[in-house]
Amino acid sequence: MERQIELALSPGAFIRDRACCSFVSSLEEVAARIGALARTGPARAASLHETFVAGCQEKAQELDDSSGSFGQFVGDLICRWIKARQASGADADETVSRLLAWMDDDPYAFCRQIEKDAAHVLDKAGLAAFEKRIRVRFEAAAMQPEYPRRR
To answer: What percentage of the chain exceeds 90 in pLDDT?
Structure first.
């Protein structure tokens, strides 16, 4: 699967905006194969999703995503990662911690407003962990300028 991810991402090839939708379609096919694996091996699927997200972060420098289709794909991939981690019984706090790290270090805006989608896929334990971490950040931002608090 790692090789399929690499081949689909076409490292070194620049993807122009008019070709981005078909490029994303080929990525969707690989993501669907990983999704099928999630039913029998959710921990493996979560790991593959995480690898795929990392590959997409690298590929972002090699494409024109004016349409936003690639960014949407990566956001969906992150939600699939959340679901696979939950299905594998992974620690909710660790999942949320990784999600927040991606949100904090997001130069290509893949996680822009992902909290809305994440809230729909997080289970009860995940939502509680997410809320807890966000409340801590919100309270810490109370003493800072307006932007960190609003964020």
So the answer is: 86
Q: At what angle do helices 69-87 and 42-59 cross, to 10 degrees?
A: 160
Handedness of CA 70, 73, 79, 82 (dihedral sign): negative
State how far the Cα of 94 lies from the Cα of 57, in Å rounded to an integer.
21
68 touches 110 (CB < 8 A): no
Question: How far is 30 from 143, CA to CA, in rounded Å?
Answer: 45
pLDDT of residue 148: 60
- Of how many residues is the chain composed? 151
Cβ–Cβ < 8 Å for 1, 47: no
Q: Are 71 and 110 in contact (CB under 8 A)?
A: yes
The parent domain of residue 64 ranges over: 2-150
- What is the per-residue pLDDT across 73-99, written as a single tens digit (0 to 9) for each? 999 999 999 999 999 999 999 999 999
Mean predicted confidence (pLDDT) in 62-80: 96
Please state the domain count of the chain.
1
Q: Which of 38, 49, 105 is nearest to 73 (CA)?
A: 49
pLDDT of residue 34: 96
